[in-house]
């Protein structure tokens, strides 16, 4: 029987120099490329090209100009 480790859980101090709000600019901070979770609510706006997002095990299109809302502790990957 194999055990699978749960996805990493990030807190705000690990992703931001502020504890209340954070805007990530891909030019200055690399995206997380593995499924993960946050202890906070995430809003993502796609300024890049068309891609896909995986939230809660479901993969959906994430086109340029789309907005995504990710609940705290929800496993996700949005490249």
Describe the structure.
The protein is mainly beta and 79 residues long. It has a domain at 18-31 and 51-74. The protein is built from one helix and seven strands; from the N terminus they run βαββββββ. It has one helix spanning 12-15; strands at 8-10, 36-38, 42-45, 51-55, 58-62, 67-70, 76-77. A hairpin with a 2-residue loop joins β4 (51-55) and β5 (58-62).
Concise account of the structure shown:
With 79 residues, the protein is mainly beta.
Helicity, in percent? under 10%
Number-wise, the strands total 7
Q: Which class of secondary structure composition applies to the elements?
A: mainly beta
Q: Helix tally?
A: 1
Distance between the termini: 31 Å
Q: Main beta sheet, described?
A: 3 strands, antiparallel
Q: What is the N-to-C succession of helices and strands?
A: EHEEEEEE
Strand order of the largest sheet: 5-4-7
Beta-strand percent range: 25-35%
Alpha carbon gyration radius: 13 Å
Q: Which ranges are low-confidence, i.e. pLDDT below 50, for 5 or more consecutive residues?
A: none
What overall form do the CA principal axes indicate?
Answer: globular
Mean pLDDT across every amino acid position: 85
